[in-house]
Every structure is written in C-alpha cells, then in structure tokens.
C-alpha cells in the first residue's frame, strides 16, 4: 500500500524546516526525516520488527523509498584475449580436461553449421544454433555425471559433454526409428535418461518449476546431487520463473538456476525485456545465493558453477547464476535477426568477444593447442557429423503405433479404440495414408 510520497504531499503534514533538514535524494532511494532528530540517533534506536513476514527488518522513523540496489558485479577469469587476470584464479586443470571442453565447443560449432544448412535445404524441419554461447559447456564440466539437468533448447553442448553421440543428435533431429524420443518431438528437443538430461519442452519456462520439484525430491532422497536448470532471460519474464525460485528458496532445494542472458528474447532486446539490475537481482530478492558471471569466459562459468554446486549439495540451498553473453546466431531457423539488429553489431561481437577465441588463446598459451590440431579436429568432426547425418537420413520413421505408446503403462480402452480406427483407415485409404517410410509393425 505504501508507495512513493511526493515532497509536496509531505509538506502538508511535516513542517517546512523538517523537510529542508531531510537528506537529499540518493541514487538508490529517497529518505525523508519525520522530525529534527539526526539520522544517527534514529539508527541507534532501531528495534527489530516482530512481524513474521520480514524478521530481519528494523523499525525506523525514517521513511525510505528504495528505488535501486547496488549493481551486482560480473565475475570473470580471463579477458577477451584469453589472459588470466588474477594468477590465483588460474585454472588448475589437466590438458586432457581443458582440451575436451574446447573440442566439444568446436564439435558443437561444426554440428550447428551442418544442421542449420540441412534445415535450409528442407532436410530437417527446424534447428537452433549455439553460436556465441559455447562457453556454457564450462558449466557442464563442473557438474557430477548424475546431477539432473533440465534444459531449455540451447544446451546441446551440455549433452555433448556428457557423451550424447552424434548419431543420437542426428536421429533426434530426423525423428527416425532410432530417436530416443520415438519421433514425438521437433528437432533439438533432446533428452537422455541415461545421461540424466530431461527431455526439452517447447513451452517456455516449464522446466523451471519441474527443476525445483526434482531438486526437492533429491534432497529428500539423501542423494549427494543437485539439479541444473538452464533458461534464457526471456523465460525469466514468465510466471513459472518466479514460482520456481520461490518454492526452491522456501524448501531449500539443491538446484542451480542457470540463466543464459544472451541479450535477446527472440527479437525483444534485454532493454525492453526488463528493468532493474538484470536477472541476478531477482535471486537476491528471493533470498538465494546469486552469482553473475561472464558467460563468454569458460573458466569463469566453470568456477561459478563449481561454487554453486557446493552450496546446492552441501548446504541444500538453491543458487541463481546469470551468465552474461551474446547470441551471435539467429534465435532459430524461423527467425531473421537482421530485422532487429545490424550485421555490424553481430560481427563486432564475433570479433571482439568470442568465447571460442578466448579459450583457444588460453590453450595456446599453455602449449596445449595449435593451428594443426584445430584444423585436424574440425576436419575429423565434420566427417563424423556428415556420416551420422547420412545414416540418420536413410532410416525410417518410428512405427505408427508409437504415437499411442508410453502415455500410460498399458494402453487404455479409448487408446486401443483409436489405434484400431487408425489401422482401419490406413488399410482402407492407402493412397492418403502412405506408411512406406515408417518402420514395420512387430
């Protein structure tokens, strides 16, 4: 009920000299003294409130209207040239570990280029690239293999790091009979029970409350694991975001909310998406540990996720990470980003703050990478992707009956009736229901 009170309104009830004696408008708030007593004296008299809704607050005779908070800094380890800024933050990792991360980033780039072009040729129906955001693979490297992951749709690199094969990626994008999702989802909606990666959903932000629930279940089970939930800053405008953070905070659920703030919610720039200090400030508002990190810095992302996981697993508390990055590619193959940003802007980001370049330069400074290894890996992976692509393209679609399975443990009477009706239609009108490209029924 209490909102902004103008100086004119206060003048009606407070003597003019009291208004004159009040502090000037500060950057973060407006404060009005209600008497001539000094602010220091007021603070000495502060008494903690007894209301259950704000137990850390104190009573005050100073009317303070808060407008802004101190901005949260962005943690980074490397500069844009791959140089570690503080020797104490130098990653203590092996050559094998570091090169695996970079190799997966390269493989992701190769796969993105091929599948993007495949969609443009009409060979698959849809695709989303990861260009400019590859450093999030550092977060995957900081997790335990049995930590549960809820993704949005730009986390193919996390699956790649965990061992999802190129064949599995291609089978899903083609929705063929080897697709783990049995052809029921559009491309890039991956999932793997074996790799603890929950199937991606198209509706925005639905994975957030699901992640909170899964984390609470893990807490109750006694497992020494956590949940990692990825999403974009656009999803943070959905009600599910707020519900998820609130329930995670109040139940002390071991979940890491990883926001990829890439500057655009499809075509809506961050400047129009929200006000205030980004997404990170909301974590503080919900009473949870919060980190803002340079999302183009692999080692900063890795370190931030490491620390977040310790808090989640050891203290059973949620953590919000806001990774600041920039989406270089289009939102998806259904989007043309030139309609809302200039080509120069995109090229400037690719040239001046490229997560791939940062990581490569760091590896080269250690003597762990060079041009020949770069070219060899790209060539090998291109061949491997094209081989998996060709194999997936040749396979048949799943059995028609798969559209009825897995809804319930056993087919219900109404599903059996629908299945029978479809079979009869296919048999009666083969010219309209061509099933030659579908796997044969058992």
TrEMBL record:
Secretion signal span: none
Single GO BP term: branched-chain amino acid catabolic process
Record localization: Mitochondrion matrix
Catalytic activity: N(6)-[(R)-lipoyl]-L-lysyl-[protein] + 3-methyl-2-oxobutanoate + H(+) = N(6)-[(R)-S(8)-2-methylpropanoyldihydrolipoyl]-L-lysyl-[protein] + CO2
One MF annotation (Gene Ontology) recorded for this entry: branched-chain 2-oxo acid dehydrogenase activity
Protein family according to the UniProt entry: Belongs to the BCKDHA family.
UniProt-recorded name of the protein: 2-oxoisovalerate dehydrogenase subunit alpha
Role played: The branched-chain alpha-keto dehydrogenase complex catalyzes the overall conversion of alpha-keto acids to acyl-CoA and CO(2). It contains multiple copies of three enzymatic components: branched-chain alpha-keto acid decarboxylase (E1), lipoamide acyltransferase (E2) and lipoamide dehydrogenase (E3).
């Amino acid at each position: 009920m209490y909102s902004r009170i103008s100086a004119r309104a206060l003048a009606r009830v407070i003597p003019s000299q009291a208004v004159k004696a009040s502090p000037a408008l500060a950057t973060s708030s407006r404060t009005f003294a209600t008497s001539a007593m000094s602010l220091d004296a007021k603070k000495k008299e502060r008494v903690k409130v007894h209301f259950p809704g704000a137990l850390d607050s104190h009573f005050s005779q100073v009317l303070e209207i808060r407008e802004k908070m101190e901005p949260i800094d962005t943690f980074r380890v490397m500069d844009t040239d791959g140089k570690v800024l503080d020797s104490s933050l130098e990653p203590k990792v092996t050559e094998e570990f570091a090169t695996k991360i970079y190799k997966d980033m390269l493989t992701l780039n190769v796969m993105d280029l091929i599948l993007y072009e495949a969609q443009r040729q009409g060979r698959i129906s849809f695709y989303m690239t990861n260009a400019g955001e590859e450093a999030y693979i550092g977060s995957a490297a900081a997790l335990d293999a049995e930590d549960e992951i809820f993704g949005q749709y730009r986390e193919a690199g996390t699956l790649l790091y965990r061992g999802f094969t190129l064949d599995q990626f291609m089978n899903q994008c083609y929705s063929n009979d080897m697709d783990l999702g049995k052809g029921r989802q559009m491309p890039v909606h991956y999932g793997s029970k074996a790799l603890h990666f929950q199937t991606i959903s198209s509706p925005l932000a639905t994975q957030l409350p699901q992640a909170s629930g899964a984390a609470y279940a893990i807490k109750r089970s006694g497992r020494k694991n956590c949940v990692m939930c990825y999403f974009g800053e656009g999803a943070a405008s959905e009600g599910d975001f707020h519900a998820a953070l609130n329930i995670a905070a109040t139940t002390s659920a071991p979940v890491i909310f990883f926001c990829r703030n890439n500057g655009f919610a499809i075509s809506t720039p961050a400047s129009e998406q929200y006000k205030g200090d980004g997404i990170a400030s909301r974590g503080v508002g919900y009473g949870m540990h919060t980190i803002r990190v340079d999302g183009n810095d692999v080692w900063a992302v890795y370190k931030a996720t490491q620390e977040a996981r310790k808090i989640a697993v050891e203290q059973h508390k949620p953590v919000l990470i806001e990774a600041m990055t920039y989406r270089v590619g289009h939102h998806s193959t259904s989007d043309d980003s030139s309609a809302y940003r200039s080509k120069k802007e995109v090229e400037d980001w690719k040239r001046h703050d490229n997560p791939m370049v940062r990581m490569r330069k760091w590896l080269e400074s250690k003597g762990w990478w060079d041009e020949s290894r770069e070219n060899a890996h790209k060539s090998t992976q291109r061949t491997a992707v094209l081989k998996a692509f060709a194999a997936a393209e040749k396979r048949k679609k799943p059995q028609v009956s798969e559209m009825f399975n897995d809804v319930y443990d056993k087919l219900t009477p109404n599903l059996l009736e629908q299945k029978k009706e479809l079979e009869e239609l296919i048999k009666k009108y083969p010219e309209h229901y061509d099933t030659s490209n579908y796997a044969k029924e058992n």
